[in-house]
Design brief:
The complex is a heterodimer of chains A (119) and B (111). Chain A has no helices and eleven strands. In chain A, a hairpin with a 4-residue loop joins β5 and β6. The radius of gyration of chain A is 13 Å and the shape is globular. The N and C termini of chain A lie far apart (39 Å). The model of chain A has no long low-confidence stretch (mean pLDDT 94). Chain B has no helices and nine strands. In chain B, strands 1, 3, 4, 7, 8 and 9 form a six-stranded mixed beta sheet that branches. The radius of gyration of chain B is 13 Å and the shape is globular. The chains are: A mainly beta (119), B mainly beta (111). Chains A and B meet through β5 and β10 of A and β7 and β8 of B.
């Protein structure tokens, strides 16, 4: 069964860029058919879809975040990454990476990592 | 403000049947399938129902989903204490910038 693990700094300063990596095990990102996603959850709040990438590099982003988000994939390392620029306290959240299908079905989730934006 | 609308809370006693609603629009639920996720306290969400009414392997048949027009529902029969969790509906949205939209979540309490 596929497993996903987020990694990256737990604390980011305002105006800087948040960078997270998701390492996939139990399956190959380049095998195709799946969409590699990032979702976040503000403390005590609901889920917010950030975007996803196909192994070929095609991306879809949440329009509310599109101007600040970049999702990329490194098939040689079986990883995909999230960059969110110009962060503010409003970007403090638990960030999940996940594997999904076309149409947004999210099959498997990582355990999530809390990122706090604070000086 | 979430694009899909869910009641913030629901409750039931063990053995009861409860339903959670999810309301959207023609650009999301009205033209795409609905998925449901269960988030137990302190854990990551888990796929519970996909394509309106399909259960992934391992999900008990006590959980069922349905869709009609621009609304969907999740039903849980034979309610158990371990069903106490947050439940989220989600769908693809075909608006100008296509993306996944979630409901605000429903906290289910087993009394």
């Amino acid at each position: 069964q596929v497993q996903l693990q987020e990694s990256g700094p737990g604390l980011v300063k305002p105006s800087q860029t948040l960078s997270l990596t998701c390492t996939v095990s139990g399956g190959s990102i380049s095998s195709g058919g799946y969409y590699w996603s990032w979702i976040r959850q503000h403390p005590g709040k609901g889920l917010e879809w950030i975007g996803y990438i196909y192994y070929s590099g095609s991306t879809y982003y949440n329009p509310s975040l599109k101007s600040r988000v970049t999702i990329s994939v490194d098939t040689s390392k079986n990883q995909f990454s999230l960059k969110l620029s110009s962060v503010t306290a409003a970007d403090t959240a638990v960030y999940y990476c996940a594997r999904g299908l076309i149409g947004g079905v999210i099959q498997y989730w990582g355990q999530g990592t809390l990122v706090t934006v604070s000086s | 403000q979430s694009v899909l609308t869910q009641p913030p809370s629901a409750s039931g006693t063990p053995g009861q049947r409860v339903t959670i609603s999810c309301s959207g629009s023609s650009s999301n639920i009205g033209s795409n399938t609905v998925n449901w996720y269960q988030q137990l306290p302190g854990t990551a969400p888990k796929l519970l129902i996909y394509s309106n009414n399909q259960r992934p392997s391992g999900v008990p048949d006590r959980f069922s989903g349905s869709k009609s027009g621009t609304s969907a529902s999740l039903a849980i029969s034979g309610l158990q204490s371990e069903d106490e969790a947050d439940y989220y509906c989600a769908a693809w949205d075909d608006s100008l910038n296509a993306h996944v939209v979630f409901g605000g979540g429903t906290k289910l309490t087993v009394l």
